[in-house]
């Protein structure tokens, strides 16, 4: 199961119990989170960016996991389910956001050349980059 985007995480078909398929259970756990998106946990108040989602099933615990980068810059993986109190801060700006996130996981920012980081930022955040360019020209 590579893509859970076709399975709605909120559905009348979702019920608790043995009749819930693995795919539906994982879709409910992941919620609206997407690679490249930013979210806030209502429990901790922390804002984080999703870098990867591994829906599984995996042979060991956790059966699925999500990799995030917190406000402190630390990257960690967990299997904390989405809660209704959690908040979507920003959806990914680009379809290339998952590729950018994968690059960042494989190449920590501390090793990247500033010019290369600029190119990657433009790819991952085209709307924001365009807005900054318009502001720069206007000043």
What does this structure look like?
31% of the residues lie in helices and 18% in strands. The chain starts with 21 loop residues before the first helix and ends with a helix. It has a 5-stranded antiparallel beta sheet with strand order 4-3-2-1-5, covered by helices on one side. Strand 1 (38-40) and strand 2 (47-54) form a beta hairpin. It is of the alpha+beta class and 139 residues long. The chain is built from 4 helices and 5 strands; from the N terminus they run αβββββααα.
What's the number of extended β-strand segments? 5
Largest sheet: 5 strands, antiparallel
Low-confidence stretches: none
- Give the CA-CA distance, first to last residue: 49 Å
Task: Write down the oligomeric state.
Answer: single chain
Instruction: Give helix and strand order, one letter per element, not per position.
Output: HEEEEEHHH
Please, how many helices? 4
Helix content: 25-40%
What Rg do the Cα atoms give?
Answer: 17 Å
By secondary-structure content and strand pairing, the structural class works out as alpha+beta
What is the spatial order of strands in the main beta sheet?
4-3-2-1-5
Mean of the pLDDT scores?
78
Specify the overall morphology. elongated
Into which percentage range does the β-strand content fall?
A: 15-25%
């Amino acid at each position: 199961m590579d893509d859970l985007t076709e399975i709605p995480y909120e559905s009348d078909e979702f019920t608790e119990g043995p009749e819930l398929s693995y795919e539906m259970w994982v879709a409910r756990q992941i919620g609206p989170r997407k690679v490249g998106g930013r979210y806030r946990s209502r429990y901790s108040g922390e804002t984080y960016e999703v870098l990867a989602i591994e829906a599984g099933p995996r042979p060991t615990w956790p059966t699925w996991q999500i990799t995030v980068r917190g406000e402190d810059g630390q990257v960690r993986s967990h299997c904390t389910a989405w809660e209704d109190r959690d908040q979507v801060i920003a959806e990914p700006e680009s379809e290339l956001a998952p590729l950018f996130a994968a690059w960042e996981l494989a190449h920590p920012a501390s090793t990247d050349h500033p010019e290369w980081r600029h190119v990657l930022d433009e790819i991952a955040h085209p709307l924001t980059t365009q807005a900054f360019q318009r502001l720069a020209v206007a000043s």
